[in-house]
Amino acid sequence: MNLVFCLYEYFPYGGLQRDFLKIACSAMDRGHTVRVLTMDWQGDKPAGLDVQLLPHSAISNHRRCLKFNRAVEKLFLQLNADIIIGFNKMSGLDLYFAADSCYRARKACSRFTSRLMPRYRTYVDFERAVFAPESKTEILLLAPQEKSKFIACYGTQEERFHLLPPGVSRDRFRPANALKIRDELRKELGLLSENIMLLMVGSAFQTKGVDRTLRAMARLPEKLRARVKLYVIGKGKIGSFRGIAKKMGLAKQVYFLGGRDDIPRYMLAADLLLHPARTEAAGNALIEAMAAGLPVLVTENCGYAFHVKDANAGRLIPMPFEQAALDQALLDMLNGSELQTLGENGAQYAARADMSGLHEHAVDIIEEIAARKALR
């Protein structure tokens, strides 16, 4: 089959991008031809993957996306595709991989004037093109709670949703020599036995709540705070967050490491993963932490937070978010004796649950929808 994948940009360290690439490679392994339409590609390209860069220059992000969508639509008839899969919301798709939460639901509490702006209208139009009842686009869903938001906002039919299991790579599961890896990395980082290593993983630091974590750290009792080190892995604008850390007296305790390929080592070395995200349709870092035996502190609005709850692998911060609740939960977890037990609960849950079938199952559904499309 000829498959066309569309996404705004590819870089190696985003959760959406990693899922996209694994699905593309799984499809090619089955003998399908995969062409990618994108605005930007950073990093290596797998052999056999046809990547086409499309024009996208504009003065704002939403206009860049609109220009890209128009360029993509012009190509659809020329591509002779059996199926068109989008990893961002846009018109003309046969199948959409729903890695982003419902934009309209997120903005429901915004001021009325902001909902009149071109940015809002553009992104809602993209979303409506996927989820409106008259749309033929089917949806690959990562977390069940997002489905109710899309249905409430757009009236999407239930049968168009296909729920996927998580997609944890095998290298994320805790290995037999986990303690050795933990000790080696902590030694490399210069951590003492009394140090507490906090970890955050994910691009877009404002969305992931790095500022929330910094405030919670700053409010720990002085003796406990002095023992804590925070390591932030991911792609994002660091400047403002360095400024927050400096203002709160944490400059020497917070490390921004950029995107990295050795995240499994950091998850084995850390004592707690924090993920107080403002919005998160899924959250691969949560289940990867559980697979590594790392306890989690997460806001309950994250798509995969229910796995943390079901496994008793950490604490959930209720919504609507209050900083005081995160502050108290962090203090309780670091003062208590439950971290090791929570981590073990997560590892056992990940070992017995279906945590690694996402990418193969996604290709199964792609093949099924393409076959149905051919019969129309």
Written account of the structure:
This protein has 376 residues and is of the alpha/beta class. It has two domains: 182 residues, Glycogen Phosphorylase B (Rossmann fold); 183 residues, Glycogen Phosphorylase B (Rossmann fold, 3-Layer(aba) Sandwich), CATH 3.40.50. Helix content is 44%, strand content 17%. The protein has 16 helices and 15 strands. The strands form three sheets. A seven-stranded parallel sheet has the order 5-3-1-6-7-8-9, sandwiched between helices. The chain has a six-stranded parallel sheet with strand order 12-11-10-13-14-15, with helices on both faces. It has a two-stranded parallel ribbon with strand order 2-4. Helix 13 links the parallel strand 14 and strand 15. The mean pLDDT is 95.
Brief write-up:
With 376 residues, the protein is of the alpha/beta class. The protein has helices spanning 15-29, 61-79, 103-106, 118-131, 144-154, 178-188, 205-208, 210-218, 222-225, 239-247, 263-269, 284-292, 305-311, 323-335, 339-352, 358-374; strands at residues 2-6, 9-10, 33-38, 40-41, 50-53, 83-86, 95-98, 138-141, 161-163, 196-201, 228-233, 254-258, 272-275, 296-299, 314-317. The chain has two domains: 2-165 and 357-374, Glycogen Phosphorylase B (Rossmann fold); 170-352, Rossmann fold, CATH 3.40.50.
